[in-house]
Amino acid sequence: MGYAFARADVAFLGSAAGRAALAATAELPLTDGSLLADLGRVRRAHGAAAAALVETVRLRRRAVVKLDGAGEWLLTDDALQQATPSAVARHRAARLAGREVHDVTCSIGGELAALARTCTAVIGSDVDPVRLAMAAHNLAAVRAAGPDAARPEPGPVALVRADALTPCTRDTVIVADPGRRAGGRRTHDPAALQPPLPDLRTAYAGRDLVVKCAPGLDFARLDWPGEIEVTSLDGGVREACLWSPGLAEPKVTRRATVLRTGQPPSTLTDADPDDIPEREPGSWIVDPDGAVVRAGLVRQYAARHDLWQLDPRIAYLTGAAVPPGIRGFRILDRFEFREKPLRAELRRRDCGPLEILVRGVDLDPDRLRRTLAPTGRTPYTLVITRIGRAAAVFLCTATPATPG
Ligand SMILES: C[S@@+](CC[C@H](N)C(=O)[O-])C[C@H]1O[C@@H](n2cnc3c(N)ncnc32)[C@H](O)[C@@H]1O
Predict the structure, then answer these.
(1) pTM of the predicted protein model
(2) Contact 359, 303 (CB under 8 A)
(3) Do residues 333 and 320 touch, judged by C-beta distance below 8 A?
């Protein structure tokens, strides 16, 4: 939950006195162990502002890995959790370059900071006045940072308090990132989002609309007429973004975008070729990035990288080489799934640390590891999957991802 910031806190924290107090507070360790003593010290120096100061410094320390320039930002605990990581926001902003954009659920400005660098005009709105005040502070910090080698000068952003379901701009691209908590719990129900997805679709019917959603959304039930883009960042699937038909590439309904720090984005769509051969397993097993799997583009990925499937219904791929940027598993042997002989085989090979990957077979890897009880020194990976009707076990050695 975290500290409940008020607008007066935001005004103080953004003032010269607040900035000086934040700088002094940032000198303290503020670890779980030192927190009580540190809080006492800040309270003696800054009285009632102590909780807001300490919370802000702790949130900034957490935020710097997610948000560019967050060392100067004002945030709340929830707003930080909900904010789009800068790398993902930058990718979306690049797709909207040159457009006039209205972010109707702007919160503390995670998306706005990126849009301000690519779009010709940017408006942000939200129902929460505290988050809007924080967004104003954060965007001023972004503008003060100015351009850098990789990013252009940010333009001005207009901020207004408004309900997303009452359109207040015309001819702008609408960007929405509805909250995913309903009654304190995360939801995958589009109608339980805040604001609800069906209501956003009605409010902006016929407009260019971009909606960031959870990657677990049931795409089939959504009946979305444009493109659904699943994005991962450094191996973790972060979001599914809905692009209305006017913003989608012709013939594209699904896209997987793989973002890795320090590498250019890699993207794959359902308009890409998906012809792959049917063959016996090659020398390697390849587990494609989660964005590719979630977007249903495993065949397209295989076709691009000269791979084929172990089984047409399973997302594991196989081939003669591992594509750059992901881990591969070199196949040493293949067995039927029978626990006793498998245990004896692992013992014979002096198996120690054992990674177990399972897809398409109903078993618990932790329970199986306990049963196999590897006690040796050599690390192995077991890839257990279904081929046709039977479970197959591949004994492998894993390699780290090669640079992309
Ligand atoms: C998931 S957050 C957006 C995070 C933002 N994209 C970022 O990167 O920082 C959702 C925001 O929607 C706002 N919100 C919820 N219902 C709204 C509504 N009906 N109109 C406008 N904003 C709303 C909440 O106050 C919250 O700030």
Answers:
(1) 0.93
(2) no
(3) no
